């Protein structure tokens, strides 16, 4: 009898082995203030591909479960995916091709990361019970059409990452926010669609996204700036073949705080382009390989005299093709807490020396170097004494003037030497030389006048 009971207890124990007893898993209580996260964190990365099929159980109160990098191919119902306390589930970097309906018994789940898998569809019932889900990451999967993602009914979803799925072509015909079924809800606050092969953003694309504040649409094939939702606080347009940007593209974006314009095909930053962005705090224009002109009026005229008007805090122009920057910008740029001008082919002449008055951190002066003039090539701007920042053109002009004066004096001296009356033989030589030519008839006449006087 006793043996029986012991055996039963043993079986029961085996059945309810906690995941925390596994050697490959780590459980700990994160010490965070946030009350939402007062539970255990379970980390089971690099454990095994069959971890969902085993009988492990979660601790009673668990907040975060990390099952990433386990080579899991199929998500199925499992004791590990049955919890009323789990808030975050990480399944990224597995080899998931299928998620079975009813796999997720996680009514409190807010964050789900399925990035880096092999998913090309998700059945519409899969997320049925995840009514509290706020964050969903499906980046780096194999989706080719948005309609196979099926998460419209996730009514609390506000942060979605769909990067590097080839869904751009399918977006021509479907609106991302189409309420008829598969689209995103209009509660979306943050959307990342980087690297999805999007060629154009259709008109009214964001018309139903009333509350969107972050849009990352970098690394696509967009050549024209589209109608930007005015609610945006953070916009990333980097790595697109955009040739021109104009003030009209960025008017009325009164909430925009951060704008990222790296690696575009723009040649210039024109007048007034950033003038109507009252909330802008961070602007990056890095790696713009065609950018040669940065207008002194890019931020408008007022900021040139009144630094109080200039609200930007961080600006990076790193790795572009700028050779000069107007000294008029000294006042606003002097206000920045962070400025990076490195990696541009600066022309270190008298028009650039003002840059040395800027207060820049050591990290942002290391690669702030001269390209021209040739003798200063690769010199660090902040190590170079001001006296070297000279203006070649003025210098050359002076040299040319000296040469011209000397030459003139020389000619006059020669004329005096050769043509004074006492030296008529010399002038006779001139006469012989120019005599036969009708074009120079004046000279022989003058010469013959001399001869007449002689007679
Ligand atoms: C990118 O867009 C241009 C037109 O804007 C088009 O000609 C080209 O084929 C597109 N490239 C790809 C890879 O879709
Ligand atoms: C850059 O500005 C200069 C004068 O300010 C102008 O002559 C030149 O055409 C501009 N280049 C580009 C590419 O806009």
Automatic annotation (TrEMBL):
InterPro entries: Cys-rich_flank_reg_C, Leu-rich_rpt, Leu-rich_rpt_typical-subtyp, LRR_dom_sf, SLRP. Residues 344-392 form the LRRCT domain. One of its GO terms (cellular component) is cell periphery. It comes from the Eukaryota. Keywords: Leucine-rich repeat, Membrane, Repeat, Signal, Transmembrane, Transmembrane helix. It holds the Pfam family LRR_8. Residues 1-16 form the signal peptide. The chain crosses the membrane at residues 400-420. This is LRRCT domain-containing protein. It comes from Chrysodeixis includens (Soybean looper).
């Amino acid at each position: 009898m006793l043996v029986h009971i012991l055996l039963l207890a043993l079986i029961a124990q085996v059945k309810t082995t906690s995941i925390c007893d596994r050697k490959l898993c780590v459980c700990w209580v994160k010490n965070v203030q946030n009350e939402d996260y007062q539970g255990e964190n379970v980390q089971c990365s690099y454990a095994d591909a069959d971890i969902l099929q085993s009988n492990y159980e979660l601790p009673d109160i668990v907040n975060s479960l990390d099952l990433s990098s386990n080579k899991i191919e199929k998500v199925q119902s499992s004791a590990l995916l049955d919890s009323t306390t789990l808030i975050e589930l990480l399944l990224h970097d597995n080899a998931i091709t299928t998620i079975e309906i009813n796999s997720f018994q996680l009514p409190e789940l807010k964050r789900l990361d399925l990035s880096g898998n092999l998913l090309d569809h998700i059945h519409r019932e899969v997320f049925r019970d995840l009514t509290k889900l706020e964050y969903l990451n499906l980046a780096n999967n194999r989706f080719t059409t948005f309609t196979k993602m099926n998460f419209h009914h996730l009514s609390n979803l506000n942060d979605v990452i769909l990067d590097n799925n080839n869904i751009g072509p399918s977006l021509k015909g479907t609106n991302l926010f189409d309420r008829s079924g598969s689209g995103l809800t209009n509660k979306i606050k943050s959307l990342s669609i980087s690297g999805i092969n999007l060629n154009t953003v259709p008109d009214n694309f964001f018309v139903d996204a009333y509350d969107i504040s972050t849009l990352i649409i970098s690394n696509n094939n967009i050549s024209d700036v589209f109608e930007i939702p005015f609610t945006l606080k953070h916009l990333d347009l980097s790595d697109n073949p955009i040739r021109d940007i104009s003030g009209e593209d960025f008017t009325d974006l009164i909430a925009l705080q951060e704008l990222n314009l790296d690696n575009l095909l723009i040649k210039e930053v024109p007048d007034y382009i950033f003038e109507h962005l009252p909330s802008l705090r961070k602007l990056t224009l890095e790696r713009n390989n065609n950018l040669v002109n940065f207008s002194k009026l890019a931020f408008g005229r007022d900021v040139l005299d009144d630094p109080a008007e200039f609200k930007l805090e961080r600006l990076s122009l790193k790795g572009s093709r700028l050779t000069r920057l107007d000294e008029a910008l000294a006042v606003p740029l002097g206000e920045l807490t962070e400025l990076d001008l490195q990696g541009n082919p600066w022309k270190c002449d008298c028009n650039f020396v003002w840059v040395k008055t800027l207060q820049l951190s050591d990290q942002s002066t290391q690669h702030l170097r001269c390209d021209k003039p040739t003798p200063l090539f690769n010199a660090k701007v902040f190590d170079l004494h001001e006296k070297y920042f000279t203006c070649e053109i003025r210098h050359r002009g002076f040299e040319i003037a000296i040469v011209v004066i000397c030459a003139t004096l020389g000619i006059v001296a020669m004329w005096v030497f050769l043509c004074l009356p006492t030296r008529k033989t010399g002038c006779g030589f001139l006469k012989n030389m120019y005599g036969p030519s009708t074009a120079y008839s004046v000279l022989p006449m003058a010469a013959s006048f001399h001869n007449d006087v002689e007679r």
